[in-house]
Automatic annotation (TrEMBL), chains A, B:
The keyword Nucleus does not apply. This is Uncharacterized FAD-linked oxidoreductase Rv2280. The keyword Oxidoreductase applies. It holds the Pfam family FAD_binding_4. It comes from the Bacteria.
Amino acid sequence: MNTLVDAGFSPRREGFAPQPLIEALLSILPAHCVLHREEDTRPYECDGLSLYRALPAVVALPEDEAQVRAIMQLCKRMNVPIVARGAGTGLSGGAMPHAQGVLLGLSKLNRIKRIDPAGGTAVVEPGVRNLAISEAAAPYGLYYAPDPSSQIACSIGGNVAENSGGVHCLKYGLTVHNVLRVRVVTIDGEIVELGSEAPDAPGLDLLSVFVGSEGMLGVVTEITVKLIPSPACAQVVMASFASVEAAGNAVTQIIAAGLIPAGLEMMDRQAVHMVEPFVQAGYDLQAQAILLCEADGTPQEVAHEVAMMEAVFKRAGATSLQVSGSEAERLRFWAGRKNAFPAAGRVSPDYYCMDGTIPRRHLARVLGAIEQMEDDFGLRCANVFHAGDGNLHPLILFDSNKPDEVERAEKFGAAILELCVQVGGTVTGEHGVGMEKINQMCVQFSRDELDAFLAVKRAFDPPGLLNPEKVIPTLARCAEYGKMHVHAGEMRFPDLARF
Amino acid sequence: MNTLVDAGFSPRREGFAPQPLIEALLSILPAHCVLHREEDTRPYECDGLSLYRALPAVVALPEDEAQVRAIMQLCKRMNVPIVARGAGTGLSGGAMPHAQGVLLGLSKLNRIKRIDPAGGTAVVEPGVRNLAISEAAAPYGLYYAPDPSSQIACSIGGNVAENSGGVHCLKYGLTVHNVLRVRVVTIDGEIVELGSEAPDAPGLDLLSVFVGSEGMLGVVTEITVKLIPSPACAQVVMASFASVEAAGNAVTQIIAAGLIPAGLEMMDRQAVHMVEPFVQAGYDLQAQAILLCEADGTPQEVAHEVAMMEAVFKRAGATSLQVSGSEAERLRFWAGRKNAFPAAGRVSPDYYCMDGTIPRRHLARVLGAIEQMEDDFGLRCANVFHAGDGNLHPLILFDSNKPDEVERAEKFGAAILELCVQVGGTVTGEHGVGMEKINQMCVQFSRDELDAFLAVKRAFDPPGLLNPEKVIPTLARCAEYGKMHVHAGEMRFPDLARF
């Protein structure tokens, strides 16, 4: 249901002959681990952001760390780009192949090596699915907290690359807060271990810089994650509001009351009307905005928190309030939120899911501005998002059969992200920069800041072979994009100053 | 009360003449911001680790960011080392001056620039004292959570450099989890802002790598910290155990029960007997180990958590249990823990406070090994520490008037840290590496891992002028130290394998 437009990125260099590379890979890998015929490499041409596509020169599917090392050493020797890929569910084109490069698929490194229930840790390979970790930990009453929407399919290696989030991240943190150690193969084929099972590793915190580095610094071959006790119970409070502003203020008041909900999500009227006919979750069609606020823990904790949540929402002017009375009802309340993307597919031929983040206090203002942009760009936009984190996911609805709508959707998306920067937020909350937001990085950061990123990138990858041309824009690209760095919280764009 | 031994580190290079440097600094700073007479620079010769001392060539005390930039540019031009210093309360020699360098004191950058109660943030300069932030936030019902023992005196800039912890870090995180953004002057005099008020900044997470980088990457001039609501109440459960092992297992069971105490501290028998005569906290002198376990939050939450804590401790074999019945009693229970260092000073001429971290499950085993080392090294050691984090603070008691005791204390300390590495822990929990633990870094990390640190250091500071000769050991230093890297959790030292 995503758009299927070939952006023509990274075309094959004229005269590029993949054969020597394929032969070299076949000399270090079993034949079944090297894919090079077009029909075999086609499934790897894009990730979840199908707007950008490229066929890789060759796909390598190593079965163990030694093979990963050999691939890295080979590519360095032959000066060949490497793009690592987990399950390919990413939404920013981070795993889009390089036309002259190796697509390094990690799906065969899929063992859960160890679970330590007393220590609350699991040691897994990068190809293990996010949900499979929680399934393996369930017999011990434990689970892995970060839960991206794609958790059935996405891999923990991809989660590390993107620093993935999810509904539970407000309370339990992003991937970076739930990974204790990673084992990494560098571009030289060396092994380094970053982080530690103990809190605060000595020296520089290279674990945090590696998590979320989108495949630019090395390839992870082993990950030690934190497991936490599964909560005994959970309940969700669903509150309606007569305006987006009132709902935004209620979010601020929940946090100000010292509550840290297990999830705090908002849907605007457009989103509610999009999903309700699809899922029949019982959403209030009169509301301008709905909040879903979850408490988890022991029954006493949940009862206490739910009472506090209800009190805050009442004070904040909720027009209607419901508390889930059973696990079935709790799941029904969440069903609309979780099915927003498929629901968008029912009402629009295509949609473009954005991922900006803003300080919570600006929620109402930014949502108001997005509404105004719907007129400006002539496209509808539904908002379904992690309100507690200030992490917006505007869904821009369009039809890719009308070519100018693709362009308008892209411009609409860019305008939303640049507004996020203006109010002191960022151009991505949990989906990464990848291909998609590389131009907006020019707005987010000063040249000196981008140079600091580049210097660290070069420290790990001097030849620049790991996921090249993504995440960090060059000086030339920013000059071409023609928009300047906005200092957080400052308004420098006259054309957006009206919001 | 720390030892007063000059280790002779970093002696003045023969023929080094500080005059041109002093004159150059006087050309860019007011005269009262440049200290160069010996009696003026003497107070800066060491930080809280007085084992290592050096007089700096000159002390610069800038009054604003523009002066910091000018100093950095000057030092780069003149190829002069720079050591930044906050309040000088650090315990690993991180702020020890370089004899041919500038000691850059940040105490005059001490403004609280902004407090945003709705957003839960404060923007402060690096010289602001840790506790001053909470004092300024108190009228809004907010506070800054990380609370190192030195919080009355230590500066937030120093906390950022060391990634400082404290009693509350188990629940509320280290400095890195409570800092949202830093403004940094690079060695080139450029300004970069790292991090964001929104969760998860795009690009590489350079904020996390900067926090805890011990002055090696840049000089911070502005810090945006997170403020959280002050808990309505707090209670502490004090439990006695008949063995250190039983207390260690109780810690594991608290965490396994899904509790995250606001503090979870252990004192062994030696520590209890050291502090009780000094503070009369009412500690159980029969116990082999005492745990202090705090709950904070709303009265209902606290009551619920305290009941769970009591139940866990009973099941874990506590020989006695007390719950603080009033705020005065709560503070009295904590008084012994908080006064352990002064108490050590009463019973021993000198002490050496270590800072290793281990996976919690090895608490009993490591404490047993330390007890055995007391015989081996002929020195006593009291243990007072953040048990919930697995962060040990062994206090080695010695007398510096007996020269061989200094050497034995240092060797004892090194043996403890290397044992921490062997069981999968680290050589520092919250005090940093600095001068003190640079040799143990050779044990903690492989050469490839140290090279990754060096590469990132060089990315920020190509000429290597920022806090040189600290934190990251050279190949030559590791060769001289003669101990090899231990893979986490593996036992490779035959001489320590008996523990």
